[in-house]
Every structure is written in structure tokens, then in C-alpha cells.
Amino acid sequence: MKTRIFQIIAALTVLSMLLAACGGGAPAPAQPTAAPAPTQAPAATEAPAAAPEPTQAAAAPADGVAEPTPGIATDMILLPKFVGNKVFDEAHDGAKEAHAELQNPGKLEFVGPTADNSVAGQIEIVTNAPTQGAKAIMISNN
Fold it and tell me: How many CB atoms lie within 10 A of CB 131?
């Protein structure tokens, strides 16, 4: 019973951290609706720079099936419930195959906690992943 409560609290903690990181906190203060009148004519502006090359796949089409774009660099982490389990090792093999098939020049890391600290270990990895450059986390939650 205590373990289940701890798991729920840990999941809510991770969710709140993710929401805070995504700006899911308090709403931004209201902005004034009318701008003050300018006192002089605005300065001439230059044409905007060309759009950069895409760094991620386009949004999913209306039918909900997205086609990945090969060759886009995305650093990813495959986070199992814990390491040392054959099922998660096979998932890692599949992730490596997909990584190669998509010609992703980014890193694919297979990191996870031990069975003894799976909840706390997952929280630590998810918390630190963005600061280590990960753009995607594939997770098997606990």
C-alpha cells in the first residue's frame, strides 16, 4: 500500500515538473489592449532572414499517421523501468534499428535505474535529460 502511494506521489511530482518546464504554471499577466501612440515614424526594417532548415518532423496529417523525416538529428534517451530485464533489452535493440533506419545522426542512449530504485532513478533521469541535450525521452513508466 505504501509503495503504491509513493508511486502515485512520484508520478504526480514528475508530471508537475514537466508542466512547470513547459510553462504550465500560472497564466501570464494580461497585456494592455491598446498600444500608446508612437511619437515618431517607425524605423525602416530589413527583410527577415531565410527560415532555418527544419530540425524536426512536420506535424501529423489529418489521418493521424506521421511520416518521419530521415536524417534529422535528435538526441534521444530510451528509459526502461529498470535495467537488466530482457524485455527492455529487446526494446533497446528495436530502438537501435529504428534509429539506424531513420538515419538519425543524433545520440541514442539506453539508460535506466536498477530494480532497487526504479521510481527515484527514473525521476532523476527524466529531470536531468533536458540539461544533457536530450530532445526526446522514450519511457516505460513505473
Answer: 7
Termini Cα distance of the chain: 15
The CA distance from 123 to 111, in Å, is: 12
Of the candidates 45, 46, 70, the one whose C-alpha atom is nearest the C-alpha of residue 57 is: 70
Q: What is the DSSP string of 19-45?
A: HHHTT-SSPPPPPPSSPPPPSSPPPP-
Query: Minimal CA–CA distance to 111: which of 125, 93, 98?
Result: 125
- Which of the residue ranges 13-27, 72-86, 107-121 would you say has the lowest mean pLDDT? 13-27
Percent of the chain with pLDDT over 70: 56
